[in-house]
Recover the amino acids of this structure.
């Protein structure tokens, strides 16, 4: 069971890393939207 949990976490880390590598700026899109809103 612990091995299954370990594999699930490793797969989640890999999928999150792929998403993060697609970002165009220095911070994430949600933070960027909050910053843009506060600037306006």
């Amino acid at each position: 069971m612990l091995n299954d949990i370990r594999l699930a976490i490793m797969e989640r880390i890999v999928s999150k890393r792929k998403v993060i590598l697609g970002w165009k700026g220095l911070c994430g899109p949600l933070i960027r939207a909050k910053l843009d809103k506060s600037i306006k």
Summary: The mean pLDDT is 94. Residues 1-25 form one domain. The two ends are 50 Å apart (CA to CA). Helices lie at 2-21, 29-39.
